[in-house]
Write a structure and sequence with these properties.
Shape: globular
Number of domains: 1
Largest sheet: 3 strands, antiparallel
Order of helices and strands: EHHEEHH
Radius of gyration: 13 Å
Helix content: 40-55%
Number of helices: 4
CATH architecture: Orthogonal Bundle
Strand content: 15-25%
Structural class: alpha+beta
Number of strands: 3
Distance between the termini: 48 Å
CATH class: Mainly Alpha
């Protein structure tokens, strides 16, 4: 059985062109797909993350709608 490819926080942040600190904020606010936690390590399954990017990076949680409504 082959393990699914995963991306590190640094790799995800690089693809989004943000810092890893900002990536943590985006995760907390539900604006990016939630990572899988292995102890203190956060990993994103590569295929679902790529699908999310390809679909235009839609919000992954309720916070985005609330933030947009305030503007």
């Amino acid at each position: 059985m082959m393990a699914e490819a995963t991306l590190s926080a640094r790799e995800v942040a690089g693809q989004l062109k943000v810092s890893t600190k900002h990536l943590r904020t985006l995760v907390r606010e539900g604006l990016v797909p939630q990572p899988v936690r292995f102890g203190a390590c956060l990993r994103w399954p590569a295929a679902p993350f790529q699908s999310w990017l390809d679909s235009g990076c839609p919000a992954c949680g309720p916070v985005k709608a609330a933030r947009t409504a305030r503007r």
